[in-house]
Amino acid sequence: MRRYFLALTVLVIILYSASLASQSDWQSRVTQQMPLLGHRNWILIVDSAYPLQSSPGVETIETNSSHLDVLRYVLGAINSSIHVRPLIYMDAELPFVPDDDAPGATAYRNQVQHILADYKIESLPHDRVINQIDETSKEFHVLILKTTMTIPYSSVFIRLDCKYWSADAEKRMRARMR
Known about the structure:
Layout: H1 2-33, E1 42-46, E2 58-62, H2 67-80, E3 84-91, H3 105-115, E4 121-124, H4 126-136, E5 142-146, E6 156-162, H5 167-177
Parallel strand pairs: 1-5, 2-5, 3-4
Antiparallel strand pairs: 1-6, 3-6
């Protein structure tokens, strides 16, 4: 009985350690990538059924973590950077996903709306966002973080933009160049 208890304890410790390692792997990857990413790069926080894309500029990481936890971590990493800011896109289909077909959809919408309250969110049809990412990945890096989310159209697409140079500053500079 003692051996059984000892073996069970060791197994639980190994499984728990493996779980922590996988979680910290994706966080480490985000932390490593952040200084390299710039405007025109994307970070996607996606549901578990999001397809594995084969474009050369796409890197997909299975986080085995909650969608909202990954979103919070990524936003924190972006906001802590000196060089990029997030432009948020979400699927236009999400507001129409009912709880009857996807239990928890309303709760998710409320939670994600709370997390993203300080950001302007642009809603686009899912296929349009995917096509934009596919085009972008031909020239620029796209980091996809798969989560344990099981609600369709719940992905959060973050296009990185320059934090210290605005679109208005760019327009003013271009006008002076003429």
